[in-house]
Design a protein that fits this description.
Layout (H helix, E strand, L loop, with lengths): L2 H14 L13 H15 L7 H25 L2 H27 L13 H30 L6 H23 L6 H30 L4 H28 L9 H9 L4 E11 L5 E9 L5 H16 L3 E8 L10
Parallel strand pairs: 2-3
Antiparallel strand pairs: 1-2
Helix pairs in contact: 1-10, 3-4, 3-6, 4-5, 4-6, 4-7, 4-8, 5-8, 6-7, 7-8
Amino acid sequence: MSRKRAEDMAEHRHEAGNGDHHDHADHGHGGFGHAGGHGHHGHSHGIEGRGDWQVAAAVVTNLALTFAQIVGGVIAGSVALIADAMHNLSDALALIIAFAARRIARRPAHPGMSFGYARAEVVAALVNYTTLIVICLWLGYAAIERMVDPPAVEGSVVVILAGVALVVNSITALLTFRLARDSMNIRAAFLHNLSDAGTSLAVIVSGLLVIWFDWRLADPLITLLISLWILWHCVREIGPVIRILMLAAPEDMAGEEVRAAILADVGVADVHHLHLWQIDERRASLEAHLVLAEGAEAADVLARVKADLANRFGLSHTTFEVEAAGTACAGQAC
């Protein structure tokens, strides 16, 4: 398990206290059993309103830049500049969606939503990346079309506006830098702004090539490279988002290692019906059936197992059903 995840989980254990440790002797806890434990987590790990002005400022600057680039791209006839503008627009929209999702994620858990609303940010991230992938495919198609018959491009307009975009993207990245570690949406926007800065540099190069050498093919070629770069970035980043929504185990936490750690306790004879999944970006959950060794005290075994899982894997949300050897469910995947 990664050191960062362990530190994050340790922080949550400190904040939540004993309220997040579920010492269930049976599996029939239902949604209401989780509501109290998750009510705190449903809103504690977000940015809690701090830094909202940075997000707002980043949105405004990206929208203003997008408008200027689209107008300039139409005037100059540069598809590369329009491509950069679409990327900036997607960043602004991503920030807007992420901001709204953050607000939703802060809502406390209740019996109807016992895990809280933290996954709103994960859903927002999926929307953002899916939209970006579609934009990349469209821009790539437009670039290939223009390679057949490259149109005239006003290189000076392209260079000036791309230079402005480079400055704005750098400022936007700085505005979101401090917030990036708290939300996968903000982190994605931060990374997008960094890639935007690189994209603006590429557009400047294409404009200079048009000015110096009248190489019209540079504009669609740069556009295609921009599209491929953003597409690669999106495909790489969307994987963890899909894993969370598909209830996958954390990438840095092997289920077999967790099983082995539970079985290592002298009071555990067997473990089955083990499910490990990631609730949201920072929380993981585990449920399992424990078969006690003969003579073992359930309370002592649960306390040891929970403490070991919390220390070794950062798992503070664990739910166990305790069984005695020879019961109907023991040894079965029920």
